Amino acid sequence: MILIAKLISYSDKRGHSVRKERFPSTPAIRTLRENGARFLVRPYKYQEKEVAAAAARELGVDEHLVIKTLVMEDEQKRPLIIMMHGDKQVSTKALARAMGAKFVTPCEPKVAQKHTGYMVGGISPFGTRKRLPVYIEESILDLERIFINAGKKGLLVEISPAELVRILNPTTVNVAR
Length: 177
Prior knowledge:
The protein is α/β, with parallel strands linked by helices. It has one domain: YbaK protein (Alpha-Beta Complex). About 25% of the residues lie in helices and about 30% in strands. It has 5 helices and 10 strands. Strands 3, 4, 5, 6, 7, 8, 9 and 10 form an 8-stranded mixed beta sheet that branches. A hairpin with a 2-residue loop joins strand 8 and strand 9. The radius of gyration is 17 Å and the shape is globular.
């Protein structure tokens, strides 16, 4: 496991200077640690618009490597997660066909937070409040490394798609447009 920590300094009860590493902690990062995943924590300056593009620029990586975690629901309001390249969109018609559903629509932000425990802009597929079906665009698995949300706005993890598959066991789909 590889993490990036912040070094914090403070004084103890005796007035001695103490330096300590502090790792960001979210349910996503705890889940990755519990599963022995190899990953890097990659903080960036969060922007409300074009989040994947902004994160890619901030980290100096191709937007295609920044993976969006989207929460959607089928016609029976059953939630699901779909992971997509930052520079692509999800064809909801193709996703519905792949799932055997009549239709699929994005969840409202409050509904997404209720199901995942994460705010929109910080949704991670790891450590969700409820266990949800997880789908992944098949071409993501061809990448050497990806950058995916770590459960907090402005915080990604760099991880191999193989680690993601090992932990989440997602269903592959071809729904990019």
